[in-house]
Amino acid sequence: LFVAPASAQSPLSLSEAIACAKAHNPDAGAAAAAEREAAERVTQVRGGYFPKVDFAESWQRGNNPVFVFSSRLAQRQFTAADFTLDALNHPDATDNFRTAFSIEQLLFDRTISANIRAASIGRDMAATGKRLVDHDLTAAVTDAFGRVLIAAATVRSAAATVEAARADRELAGNRWGAGRVTDADVLQLDVYLARSLEQQVQATSDEAVARARLNQLMGEPLSTMFSLDLTPPAIAIDITNPAGLEEEALKNRPEVALAIQQEQLAAATVDAARAAFLPQVVAQGVWELNGGVWDSRSSSWVAGAVARINLFHGFADKARLAEARQQTTRRALEKGKAETM
Fold first, then answer.
1. pTM of the complete model
2. 252-262, pLDDT tens digit by residue?
């Protein structure tokens, strides 16, 4: 692996560093994956509106009277001999091969629509979370970029100071040899040179740390050396209109958008909790084949509908509704706090 020296690279601008961080930083990748995950969750919940179709193939054998009676009845193999008391009480072992196709279609369930709304808000929250990560990365990269520039300038300044201190020390040594300065003057310059060298080492270390931090944010190897573009980015901000800046912040800040979406999600949770008290209606159908041997079977079908009504679940649904309402109150307070920060 080869790392090109900084002099051989085109200077890295701040905008390029930010774009690199958004493309390669693990936090940005995780936020993008969370957004896709939330989108799949919406599709998953919407699947509740589609019919459920199942296929089953089974084999059973036994002499349980109920099993034998129901199996022969499903096979349409009943004869008069099967109604004798001894045949009913002590039947011979019977095989039953069963193939079944079943379908279930939800006709009414308020919980599904409430969950879809909650999942959709969760998807929006994930997108806002990605924006928040991008904003945080932008701020962090800008800070790290500036620290590298400051550290590099400090290194250059320290190097110049060391060179000047060495020149002064050499000059003082010549003057001392000519008897024009004392030993104390030379010793004072030795101390100054040592301090300058210490400051140079510290500045070099600070630059290495700052560059490693910038590389970490950009998702690059820590040892990579970038030549940084010193041209400041052109940013125009109208600071004469504080009210306009505040309105723009409330509109565009991801933290505020996330607080609003959390409040909406809490409201959707209340709707889902209320839906638990409403009936659920489902249509069902089954077509099956039953036979005592694999290649000889009789068909039958069953169709119907089921309505389920929540009469009592140990006060769990009531507590869940109360919890959702308290969450709504908390989210509203958090939204107000986010708008004033």
1. 0.72
2. 778 888 888 89
